């Protein structure tokens, strides 16, 4: 990873990154923090923050070895930021070591002058004794895998043969996958536009995703994508692109929903799957989200993609702020032909894309979110027409939010005769050997999908 910023400004980037890391350690979302970052520093701060959070466990362990007495938060966050950037890894460091140490000390002088000499001494000692300190730190599972211990144990229990590979995959940079708007362009035509702009890309021939997926050879800012502002393309992970095809049908022997079918998107924000459904089919869609502010993002996404919203164009789409579990206030009494429950979850499957998630979640979040998922399933299942289909999805690799959740649902509702479609992917892992995945295809995020039919 290379950061496009002059070295003279590195101390500012380190300061911004240290603030972001301190806030994540205190329980705040990195996305929220980056939004408040000065625009000229936002890109560099995001890149550095991602790298730091992927090595945070090791950096904290090394700091504890060199400074048994915990430094004040501002000093500690700056030190773990610099230590994480100096941590040995597969990719070369973003800056020369002497430059990084020098600029970290400059940042300390600006933030906490009294600690500048201490910061200098700790970082120079780390460079002198790095091999021994890293080896000693890695005796701790948290430092070895850069995930909280409870998370590591959860994966070890759920995936005894793959847990180490899953943890390693979570610390790698994900590919940048695009979804070409089927109403405005073809993937092949868009790939040609990318090539003309000097950006290499691969088209994916995967019927589970469809013919609109493109993967960039090198990630870039969305504003640099041809036609992004005009609604020709969206950024969406390959695993997430499976949802619309699974729900709408037309592949794998599942009949396609007819035009005008009544569809519920129960947890719509930020709107990627909502938009994908509308790109592929003319359906009567109700998109709910419990947070009215997040629905603004859905509306903005639909507007950018030139898709209908709130009564426009044949009345196909309505957006409504409501908790889908509380059916009475929002349901008009008409049953749905298809329901998508993209349920709130731990996001344990997308930590390579959101490395702060692992440090923000707590052990009891799994049970709390599983309870919400159960309530959504039980509340919405009765709203499905006989012969209808429900797609349950989470971006999680924890079985409590996937396989175990659906096994329990099928048992609770056995009298209603729900049938799990054999085309259901189940758990998709961020590994190269998912069932049904073409050989050599880039790996998508961790997800779970269950397609359930009502008799």
Account of the protein in words:
The chain has 455 residues and is of the alpha/beta class. The protein folds into three domains: 7-146, N-utilizing Substance Protein B Homolog, Chain A (Orthogonal Bundle), CATH 1.10.940.10; 176-235, Sun protein, domain 3 (Alpha-Beta Plaits, 2-Layer Sandwich), CATH 3.30.70; 242-453, Vaccinia Virus protein VP39 (Rossmann fold, 3-Layer(aba) Sandwich). It has 18 helices and twelve strands. The strands form two sheets. Strands 5, 6, 7, 8, 9, 10, 11 and 12 form an eight-stranded mixed sheet that branches. Strands 2-3-1-4 form a four-stranded antiparallel sheet, with helices on one face. α1 (10-25) packs across α5 (73-86), α1 (10-25) packs across α6 and α4 (56-66) crosses α8. The radius of gyration is 24 Å and the shape is globular. The model is unreliable at 1-8 and 311-315 (pLDDT under 50).
Shape: globular
CATH homology superfamily name of the largest domain: Vaccinia Virus protein VP39
Distance between the termini: 52 Å
Q: Would you tell me the structural class of the helices and strands?
A: alpha/beta
Contiguous runs where pLDDT drops below 50 for at least 5 residues: 1-8, 311-315
Number of helices: 18
Q: In the CATH scheme, what's the topology name of the largest domain?
A: Rossmann fold
Query: Based on the structure given, which CATH architecture of the largest domain is correct?
Result: 3-Layer(aba) Sandwich
* Helix and strand run: HHHHHHHHHHHEHEEEHEHEHEEHHEHEEE
**Portion of residues within helices:** 40-55%
Radius of gyration: 24 Å
- CATH top level assignment of the largest domain: Alpha Beta
Got a strand count?
Answer: 12
Overall mean confidence score, pLDDT: 93
């Amino acid at each position: 990873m290379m950061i496009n910023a002059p070295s003279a400004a590195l101390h500012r980037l380190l300061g911004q990154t240290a603030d972001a890391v301190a806030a994540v350690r205190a329980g705040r979302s990195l996305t929220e923090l980056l939004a408040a970052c000065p625009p000229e520093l936002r890109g560099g701060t995001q890149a550095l923050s991602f790298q730091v959070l992927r090595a945070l466990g090791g950096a904290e362990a090394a700091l504890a070895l060199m400074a048994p007495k915990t430094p004040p938060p501002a000093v500690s966050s700056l030190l773990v930021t610099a230590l994480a950037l100096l941590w040995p890894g597969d990719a070369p460091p973003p800056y020369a070591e002497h430059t990084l140490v020098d600029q970290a000390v400059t940042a300390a002088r600006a933030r906490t002058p009294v600690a500048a000499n201490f910061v200098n001494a700790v970082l120079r000692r780390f460079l002198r004794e790095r091999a021994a300190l890293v080896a000693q730190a890695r005796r701790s599972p948290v430092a070895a895998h850069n995930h909280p211990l409870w998370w590591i144990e959860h994966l070890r229990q759920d995936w005894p043969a793959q847990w180490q590979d899953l943890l390693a995959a979570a610390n790698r940079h994900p590919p940048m996958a695009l979804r070409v708007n089927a109403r405005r362009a073809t993937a092949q035509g868009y790939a040609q536009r990318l090539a003309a702009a000097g950006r290499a890309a691969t088209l994916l021939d995967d019927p589970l995703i469809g013919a609109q997926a493109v993967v960039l050879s090198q990630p870039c800012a969305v504003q640099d994508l041809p036609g992004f502002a005009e609604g020709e393309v969206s950024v969406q992970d390959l695993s997430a692109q499976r949802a619309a095809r699974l729900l709408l049908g037309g592949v794998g022997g599942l009949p396609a929903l007819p035009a005008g079918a009544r569809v519920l998107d129960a947890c719509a924000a930020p709107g990627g799957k909502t938009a994908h459904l509308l790109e592929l089919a003319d359906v009567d869609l109700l998109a709910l989200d419990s947070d009215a502010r997040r629905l603004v993002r859905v509306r903005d996404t639909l507007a950018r993609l030139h898709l209908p919203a709130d009564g426009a164009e044949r009345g196909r789409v309505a957006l409504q702020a409501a908790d889908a579990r509380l059916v009475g206030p929002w349901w008009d009494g008409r049953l749905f032909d298809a329901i998508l429950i993209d349920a709130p979850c731990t996001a344990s499957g997308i930590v390579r894309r959101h490395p702060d998630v692992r440090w923000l979640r707590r052990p009891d979040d799994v049970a709390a979110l599983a309870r919400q998922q159960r309530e959504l399933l039980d509340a919405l299942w009765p709203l499905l027409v006989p012969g209808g289909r429900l797609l349950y999805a989470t971006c999680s690799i924890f079985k409590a939010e996937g396989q175990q959740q659906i096994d329990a649902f099928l048992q609770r509702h056995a009298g209603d005769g729900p049938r799990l479609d054999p085309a259901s992917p189940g758990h998709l892992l961020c590994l190269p050997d998912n069932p049904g995945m073409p050989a050599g295809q880039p790996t998508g995020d961790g997800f779970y999908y269950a397609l359930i039919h009502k008799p």
